[in-house]
Amino acid sequence: MNRSMIRPLRSVAALLLQLLLLASLPFASEAATTTVTCVNPGDLQAAINAAAPFDTLKVSGICSETELTIRSDKNGLVLDGGGSAIIQDPEPGGTAITVRGAHQVRIRNFANITSSTISGTGVFVVDGGAAQVLNNTISGNADGVAIQRNSEAIVNNNTIVNNVETGIRVAETSSSRIGLDFPTFEPAAAPNTIQGNGSGIWVLQGSSARIIGNDISHNAQAGILVQKGSHADVASNTIQGNVNGIEVRQNSSVVLGEDTGSGPLNDPNSGRNVGFGVLCGLNSSIDGRRGALDGTIWKVKVQAGCIDDTRP
After folding, report:
1. Of 19-23, 74-78, 218-222, 277-281, which gets the smallest average pLDDT?
2. 129: how many CB neighbours lie within 10 A of its CB?
3. Which 3 state secondary structure label does DSSP give 209?
4. d(CA 282, CA 265)
5. Which candidate, 148, 156, 104, places its Cα nearest to that of 128?
């Protein structure tokens, strides 16, 4: 064998040896699962601080926290309450969980996420954060879930009840998918129950929401309020017992399902509300199918300056 053939063979052998050595080393980015039992205040925050990105924290007990925060160095972190854990920050103005700038965060399976009815927030996704909020009870806050300042969230299969201001707030050029959704990190999840809040869902300040297949009932104000240059697609929901089912105001728009087609993304909404099924205000618009969504006073109230292009 001549020397010109030996050199490539040596290079290949060296490469194979390097690959074997790398395979024998632990994978640095391999995600870990850690059990966290909350006993003392701050236990869960300490576990979050110690976790690596994409780790899973299996949480149990009652976690008393002050401004529990998942920051941008914890992308992909999973908090799993196992169906029984509670996270609480009872201080007025407190937040039970804040996702600040972190992406791909999942918050799931908590028996309750609660703060204070005085300016408190259950789950706060903010400053470009992105989270999935799945299969939790969220109650006893001012805002159950707040998504603000260029953030986004998927909110599925939750029971969001008895929050005095709003069940879900989407504000300051943020976006949310609320209810039936195609699988991303999780199997497709069921819709939300949004009941007994101030407003059920509030979309405002240049934000958008896709609201599909939820039970939005018996909220003290609007079931869904869209205002201040915002947009919502609203289909296949039960919207009943609210003051008005849907309100669209201040240069905003709502599509009530699609004009044609069937299935959860296209079907109209249903339910009877105290005032109007849909109230459309100045310089706003409504489109799609009215379906069985109704009010005691009238199905659709169109104020001056509203463009109504709905169908039966």
Report:
1. 19-23
2. 27
3. strand
4. 27
5. 148
- What are the pLDDT digits (tens) for 57-70? 999 999 999 989 99
Check residue 261 and give its pLDDT. 66
Confidence of residue 22 (pLDDT cuts 50, 70, 90): very low
**CA 219 remoteness from chain centre:** 19
Q: Are 178 and 212 in contact (CB under 8 A)?
A: yes
DSSP annotation of 27 reads P
CA–CA separation, 29 and 69 (whole Å): 22
Average pLDDT over residues 236-263: 91
One-letter amino acid identity for 220?
A
- Beta-carbon contacts of residue 40 (< 8 Å; ≥ 6 apart): none
- For residue 119, which amino acid is it? S
Q: What is the pLDDT of residues 88-111, one digit of tens each?
A: 998 899 999 999 999 999 999 999
Q: Which residues pair with 168 in a beta bridge?
A: 145, 201
Interacting residues of 285 by C-beta distance below 8 A, sequence separation 6+: 248, 252, 253, 254, 306, 307, 308, 309
Nearest CA-CA partner of 168 in 180, 184, 182, 179: 179
CA-based nearest residue to 211, from 256, 171, 248, 247: 256
